[in-house]
Amino acid sequence: MSASAGDERPPSHLFYQSRQRRPLIDRAEGVYLWDTDGRRYLDGSSGAMVSNIGHSNPRVLEAMQAQMARATFAYRLHFENEPAERLAARTAAAMPLGMDRVFFVSGGSEAVESCLKLARQYAVATGQASRYKVVSRFPSYHGATLGALAVTGYAPMSAPFSPMMHEMPKIPAPTCYLDRDGLDMHQRGLRYADMLESEILRQGPETVLAFIMEPVGGAATGALVAPDSYYARIREICERYGVLLIHDEVMSGAGRTGRFLAGEHWDVIPDLIALSKGFAAGYAPLGAMVAPGWMVEPVLDTGGFIHGYTYAGNPLACAAGLAVLDEIESRDLVGNAARMGERLRARLDGLAERFPMIGDVRGKGLLQAVELVADRETMAVLPPERMAAARLVELAYERGLIIYWRRTRGGYSGDHVLVCPPLIVDESHIEEIAATLGDALAALEAELAAAR
Ligand SMILES: Cc1ncc(COP(=O)(O)O)c(C=O)c1O
């Protein structure tokens, strides 16, 4: 762990996952953050892939201040509010045709929970009450609440809670880059998609409600992108068995991959979409479930959607969301994510040429990841106890670059870091990220060699 300014501070009453302390944030602007000791950090992961439009955007702050001066809260059972109405309309306009009903929440886990519950209520409302199983992928991440965790495929996060929840069926995520099977990528894509059909048949199609997937993987897989053939086949299989397709775009949505939705890269229209993170880009806790009218109407007709959160459609959060959407659209940040994503990818590929421990570079747009391995040929993992990716994050942090790590192979082994700067980055930021990451990788390489 980094020797941070926090080491001299008194114990905190606050706790999260661990005892790790970090410096105090002083201020943030654009792609940089400063701690109270004046050290500057380049936000190379947009926090947790959140701060898509950068920090302290003056137009967003102004819009929030204007809303604050009017009303910060008006409960949705007592009042409608204009920012929520306008944001719902603008969100619907950014979605594929027919996906035009919007339900606001305060974060990604809530967005996923909402998708699971609306799917279930739709089945009940339309005479398909036997359907309740939600198939998902392993590895995957869909959230920390028990419903979202039940469809999450990341062993250490769910293991302690498994007796408390109804764990859902999992199929392997399409980790084609690990396969040494003589198939080409097209065939591998179909092979992994067909595992969904086998699982639906194994479970009994009449019991299967939905399939949830991240169109471009997030933290659990390290920006996993399936072969093109995968996406259309998955859509086809869901259609064939009346299984609803849920795209979890909590991380990949709002422009991060170079399209507003990652699913657009393959022209897939899912039945439900979960959004959060970049949707309000850290200016307010906000997320959304987007659904088609044909799913919402039968539920509203049969007693209503039995679900909701106190802060849903909060006017201040929605005013922030609207201003963020204005920034994304008026500055073509989606296009910038595509352009800068290519440059970032080229730099990460360059680092892979320099450092043999980089086994794979993958992703789309500004959702990129680097996987570290012991052997590039076999893709054998590094000794898990070395915590190589976590260590790389610390070495980068000490050098003023923030990146994000997770375990690649389901949670207990495998190392990757996500490199996902805000969508406002320019060429000079990409060069700074590549240079600092290169220094951190060199330091990690030396440490691993010394430990051998
Ligand atoms: C794909 C995906 N879904 C859901 C979530 C959960 O979001 P939150 O942490 O806002 O509840 C995350 C968070 O990382 C995510 O990446």
Outline the structure in words.
The protein has 452 residues and is of the alpha/beta class. It has 13 helices and 15 strands. It has two domains: 25-47 and 332-450, Aspartate Aminotransferase, domain 1; 59-331, Type I PLP-dependent aspartate aminotransferase-like (Major domain) (Aspartate Aminotransferase, domain 2, 3-Layer(aba) Sandwich). Strands 4-10-9-8-7-5-6 form a seven-stranded mixed beta sheet, sandwiched between helices. Strands 1-2-3-13 form a four-stranded mixed beta sheet. 51% of the residues are buried. The model is unreliable at 1-6 (pLDDT under 50). Pyridoxal-5'-phosphate (PLP) binds at residues 48, 107-109, 112, 141-144, 214, 218-219, 248, 250-251, 276. Its EC number is 2.6.1.-. Its cofactor is pyridoxal 5'-phosphate.
Write a brief structural summary.
The chain has 452 residues and is α/β, with parallel strands linked by helices. The chain is built from 13 helices and 15 strands. The chain has a seven-stranded mixed sheet with strand order 4-10-9-8-7-5-6, sandwiched between helices.
What keywords describe this structure?
binds pyridoxal-5'-phosphate; disordered N terminus; Aspartate Aminotransferase, domain 2; seven-stranded mixed β-sheet; Aspartate Aminotransferase, domain 1; four-stranded mixed β-sheet; alpha/beta; 452 residues
Please outline the helices and strands.
Blueprint: E1 25-29, E2 32-35, E3 40-43, H1 46-49, H2 58-70, H3 82-93, E4 101-105, H4 108-125, E5 133-138, H5 146-150, H6 155-158, E6 170-172, H7 185-203, E7 208-213, H8 228-241, E8 244-248, E9 272-275, E10 287-291, H9 293-301, H10 315-330, H11 333-354, E11 358-364, E12 367-372, H12 388-398, E13 401-402, E14 404-406, E15 415-419, H13 427-451
Parallel strand pairs: 3-13, 5-6, 5-7, 7-8, 8-9
Antiparallel strand pairs: 1-2, 2-3, 4-10, 9-10, 11-12, 12-15, 14-15
The chain binds pyridoxal-5'-phosphate (PLP).
